[in-house]
TrEMBL record:
Belongs to the AIR synthase family. GO terms for molecular function: ATP binding; phosphoribosylamine-glycine ligase activity; phosphoribosylformylglycinamidine cyclo-ligase activity. Its main location: cytoplasm. GO terms for cellular component: cytosol. The keyword Zinc does not apply. It catalyses: 2-formamido-N(1)-(5-O-phospho-beta-D-ribosyl)acetamidine + ATP = 5-amino-1-(5-phospho-beta-D-ribosyl)imidazole + ADP + phosphate + H(+). GO terms for biological process: 'de novo' IMP biosynthetic process; adenine biosynthetic process. Residues 62-167 form the PurM-like N-terminal domain. SUPFAM superfamilies: PurM C-terminal domain-like (SSF56042), PurM N-terminal domain-like (SSF55326). The keyword Cytoplasm applies. Its EC number is 6.3.3.1. The gene is purM. This is Phosphoribosylformylglycinamidine cyclo-ligase. PANTHER family: TRIFUNCTIONAL PURINE BIOSYNTHETIC PROTEIN ADENOSINE-3, TRIFUNCTIONAL PURINE BIOSYNTHETIC PROTEIN ADENOSINE-3-RELATED.
Amino acid sequence: MAAENTGAGAYAAAGVDIAAGERAVDLMKRHVARTRRPEQVDDASGFAGLFRLNTAQYRDPVLATSTDGVGTKVMLAQQLDRHDTIGIDLVAMVVDDLVVSGAEPLFMTDYIATGAVVPERIAELVGGIAEGCQRAGCALIGGETAEHPGAMEPHEYDLAGAGTGVVEGDAILGPNRVREGDALIAMASSGPHSNGYSLIRRIVDEADLDLFGEVPELDGPLGEALLTPTRVYAQDCVALTAEVEVHAYSHITGGGLAANLSRSLPDHTDAHVDRGTWAPGRLFDHLAEKGGVGRADMEATFNMGVGMVAIVAEQDAERALALLSERGVPSWRLGEVTAGSGNAVVTGEYRSA
């Protein structure tokens, strides 16, 4: 009987490269170090991330958690062989959900699955995650890279992440705080963010669009515009909540503006949104034109230029706009809260881009 093939050689024969995984860990360490916060506690084993919550800072600390991925935008990153920004998208999708409750993001963990570990590519992915964590002010305290030969092609990968934040129990934001007369403050998106990419890829395929070709109205290649990373609003929202009377936030993700904004409303109010207060942006116009997609479908799929909405007390609306401007966040008055039945009502015509 032949001797059993055991050890790392057998694992390598099955398609798992342990040495490549170890090199990937070495390459990503410098990126992870950039995100360190003073509350982190070293764990020599490396099996878990440790984070000390100083409860003396809070009267009634409530932990908030969120988990998400990047969806099929990763397929576009793979197609373009561009891997340094998709991690920013991952962090944004997690932490910008966390701050809706009023929580300050504290730390994140990530999970990367790939058909084959290419250390430099994994380091690029983690570098993007670390950049996103820096923008959010949170630490990247742990993660996992898994090699799945046979289940995924060597160039394929997918990302997921989970984040934890903290908010005072009596400061949790949400529909229960929203009042008639509140102002809706829009914060501009950087593009489609990480939603609607199944439709985008269909448009690219059916219209035979060149991802590498220059598009004059987009000031560059289409692929580069589509890979623009999701804006990270976390620190801006935390700062806004500290300075003005914020009642609720709405993170505009899959489903579009109306569907997500209605989630932040009590049953006895409506949010009236005026399309005439902004122009969605040339990329959205380009996708609608090339794909023959009507406004209703565009609005039900994409954020259309609005990535986050703050619902604030009317008397603080101008102050909120000024603070966001100081922080470099394009923002404008989107509409107001009125009596109603828990719906977001969007009317009017968009401005020209």
